């Protein structure tokens, strides 16, 4: 069936003004109905630059505090739902990512079944040729026995979309993806079928959790390889599971436990037996002076994650994760 054409872009930014400038320029080159930018209390002149823009499609939200990516997308989605009644779909991405030219036209040409509630575009690195691994869509191996066996044999590629799928022109059903180039049918939020992104997660895994919850609500998630995006995330290519500043370790492992709980269901206790030790073992990828603090942060993240306690403020997390160099 055909779908409405009012597609809104939602962008979250924090202290990456130079990247944001390119993202906004590339986004404006596409025929979006509106473009909502959530400025997460940036301190690098992003506010003044955003306020200087005159395109009438732009809607700027200046958050008084940094809410993280999860909180920023929560605000952006809520604005679309509440303030843009003519919006039919939204697509979200970070301030270091952008749609390639013609994405809106490709979107408008799609015939989207009513039970497809979300879609993932194909995300590449800045050269437009290499696939951005951190944005590769996937299936939940716990929901698909074949993928479960594939995961055991092939690891990550046992349940992620293959390279060949990126060359196809046919949409592919998947379970989840990142928020870079992620399209959401707004009516499903308005009708209460799905909610808003979980702001308490701050950063990491909020996107995958959101889409798994959408799938559990009975909505399909498509991977559409013809809708292409680029993501300037070169620093994460071939990287070990290492996060700096160290406060990112806390969010990574705390939120992963919530992700594993949602994804694995009755298998969750067994997953914990495997994953929690693996969290602690990544200490070996850090500097020796960081070992003690890393293990302390990981223990705190696991404790809070197991109890589903998301009450710590970002300021408290950062303070607790500082390292004294001896």
UniProtKB/TrEMBL annotation:
Start and end residues of each Glycosyltransferase 2-like domain: 10-102
TM helices/strands, residue ranges: 266-286
InterPro entries tied to this protein: Glyco_trans_2-like, Nucleotide-diphossugar_trans
Pfam family membership, one: Glycos_transf_2
An MF annotation (GO) of this entry: glycosyltransferase activity
Record's keyword terms, sorted: Glycosyltransferase, Membrane, Transferase, Transmembrane, Transmembrane helix
Keyword Calcium part of the UniProt annotation: no
Top-rank taxon: Bacteria
UniProt family annotation: Belongs to the glycosyltransferase 2 family.
Matches recorded under PANTHER family: GALACTOFURANOSYLTRANSFERASE GLFT2, RHAMNOSYLTRANSFERASE WBBL
Record protein name field: Glycosyl transferase family 2
Native source organism of the sequence: Halioglobus japonicus
Lineage: Bacteria, Pseudomonadati, Pseudomonadota, Gammaproteobacteria, Cellvibrionales
């Amino acid at each position: 069936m055909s779908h409405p054409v009012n597609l809104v872009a939602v962008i979250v930014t924090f202290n990456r003004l130079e990247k944001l400038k390119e993202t906004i320029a590339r986004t404006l080159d596409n025929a979006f109905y509106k473009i909502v930018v959530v400025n997460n209390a940036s301190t690098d002149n992003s506010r003044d630059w955003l306020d200087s823009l005159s395109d009438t499609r732009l809607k700027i939200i200046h958050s008084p505090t940094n809410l993280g990516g999860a909180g920023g997308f929560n605000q952006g989605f809520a604005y679309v739902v509440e303030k843009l009644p003519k919006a039919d779909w939204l697509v979200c991405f970070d301030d270091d990512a952008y749609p390639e030219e013609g994405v809106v036209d490709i979107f408008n040409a799609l015939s989207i079944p009513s039970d497809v509630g979300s879609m993932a575009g194909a995300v590449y690195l800045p050269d437009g040729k290499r696939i951005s691994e951190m944005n590769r869509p996937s299936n939940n191996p716990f929901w698909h026995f074949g993928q479960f066996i594939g995961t055991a044999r092939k690891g990550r590629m046992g349940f992620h979309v293959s390279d060949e799928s990126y060359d196809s022109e046919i949409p592919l059903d998947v379970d989840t993806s990142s928020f870079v180039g992620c399209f959401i049918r707004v009516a499903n939020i308005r009708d209460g079928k799905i909610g808003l992104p979980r702001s308490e997660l701050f950063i990491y895994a909020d996107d995958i959790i959101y889409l798994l919850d959408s799938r559990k609500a009975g909505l399909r998630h498509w991977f559409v390889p013809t809708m292409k995006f680029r993501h300037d995330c070169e620093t994460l290519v071939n990287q070990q599971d290492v996060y700096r500043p160290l406060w990112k370790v806390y969010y990574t492992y705390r939120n992963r436990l919530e992700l594993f709980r949602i994804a694995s269901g009755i298998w969750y206790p067994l997953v914990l037996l495997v994953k929690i030790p693996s969290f602690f073992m990544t200490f070996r990828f850090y500097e020796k002076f960081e070992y003690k603090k890393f293990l302390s942060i990981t223990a705190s993240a696991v404790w809070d994650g197991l109890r589903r306690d998301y009450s710590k403020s970002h300021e408290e997390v950062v303070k607790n994760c500082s390292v004294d160099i001896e």
